[in-house]
Amino acid sequence: MNYIIDFDHTLYNTPQLAKDMLTSLAKYISKSTKLNYDEILNTLSSKFSRGNDGIYDIYDLIAYFSKKYKFDEKEAIDVVNNVISNGEKYLFEDSIPFLQYLKEQGHKIYILSYNESRVYFQTVKIAGSGLLKYVDGLTTTTTLKGNMPLNFSDCIFIDDKPKDLVSIYKKKPLGIYRIRRVNDTYSEIDMDIKIPEFTNLTKLQKKLENLKNIDER
What we know:
The protein is an alpha/beta fold. The chain is 47% helix and 13% strand. It has a 6-stranded parallel β-sheet, sandwiched between helices.
């Protein structure tokens, strides 16, 4: 079977990455400008958001504050990219074991990852995670996943984001599961449609193992 798996919040602890990027960036700016670290971190964190006045793109954030604080934009980008390139530590503990399990069962695995502005950022992030050696392909998108030109009836989808899950569900996929990790970005959002939910990939794996055992009887 073909498994199409989301990256952020499903396989990868994106909130922790964001925290570390902002921390490293604030340390660099503070050192370069001699300004107070805590004040810079608070300013960066407040601006790094999806709100109307926010900038939810780390490279645009760097460009914005380089004008305000007069630091070297290229050096700051290198600081952030160094954090991203060492991304294996942001994988959830169950991510690699789950992918290995699917491979052992003979399934094909593809990562389908969304980013609202730059697919480049997603590609760098996924490459830095070290996951590419466990999957058969990678696609990044700036649109809802249900709008992708895929043969949904041949694919099983695993995702955390309600909007994407709804868009996929409407295309009648072979299978669909929601990962709803405790205290993660979308975990408090309930859905009107009934999609099986699991708080982690280990629990989903147990479900798949049970289904396999039933099929083999």
